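subagent[fold] <- orchestrator: predict structure for attached chain, return tokens only, no commentary.
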Amino acid sequence: MVYFKEVLPNPAGDDALGEWIKLVNTGESDVDVSGWTIKDAGGKAYILSTTILPRTEIVLGKTVTGISLNNNGETLTLINGNGVVVDILSYKTASDEEIIVASRFLEADASANFQATTLEDLSLAGRGSRIDGGDISLLVVALGIALTAALLVGVFVKKGNKNET
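subagent[fold] -> orchestrator:
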């Protein structure tokens, strides 16, 4: 299934160069999203023309979509080729450099392994542009959390052993 995963509506510097929308295919097979549409609350639309590989994210910059994300609130709608709403992502405000994460991914399974697609890996035909940007994958975040937890457990075990002697 393809969902909105994250958006960056208020990047440092020029919004036109830094804003992005991230979609993710959480399934185990390719999803052809050709003819699917992303719409913002004002009715601005971008029609996709690609296939998203299994368990892969794509990042669509403002320079690709033409969609300007509002810092004081926005609603994005993902509509499939049959006109069916597949997903909606809404937020109220966005602080400087705040990445808005879709609620379904806030407590995502730490073992999920999504690959962030790079410019070299995937090209979109939208407006003759390519996907911009990229981002840290969920796997890297999960690994960081796991290593931190392991370190803390090790410290407490050592303290406990010292108190026993």
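orchestrator: received. Logging for downstream: Helices lie at 15-18, 62-65, 138-164. The domain at 2-138 is CATH 2.60.40 (Immunoglobulin-like).
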